[in-house]
# Entry
Amino acid sequence: MKSLIAFMIGLFLAGPTVARDRLQDILDALRADLARWGWLLWSGRAMELPYLEEMLQGIETGTPGRSYGLAVGIDLTGSDEVLGHGGWIPGYVGSLRYHPAQDTAIAIQINTDIGMLGAEGAFDAIELAIHDVILEFTK
# Structure
């Protein structure tokens, strides 16, 4: 079963209602597109299999169960494989993850980086909680 999940936390926009609503619509579409792209790419639907196999030939990162392919993190530390890529710029944190066993892609965006990153940051726990809830429904 294919699942595409786009999730946004804490979007606070100021300005005229029409402009704010339009920007919200655009951001919603971008998240959905991001989740769809992750699903198409890492499920093997966007390119021929030999290219995907090359992309997923990861190198060790020094963390057991984790490797890094061509712009994709490969995580084998849990019960199932997870492919993905995360990002950060000042004021913004996001991730795209694909769970092959559930054929599910999840895109998460948070419009703050304050308290999100590093050993004490909240993003990893937030991302894990969202994934746990969503994946429970895709079983």
In short: The longest strand covers residues 82-89.
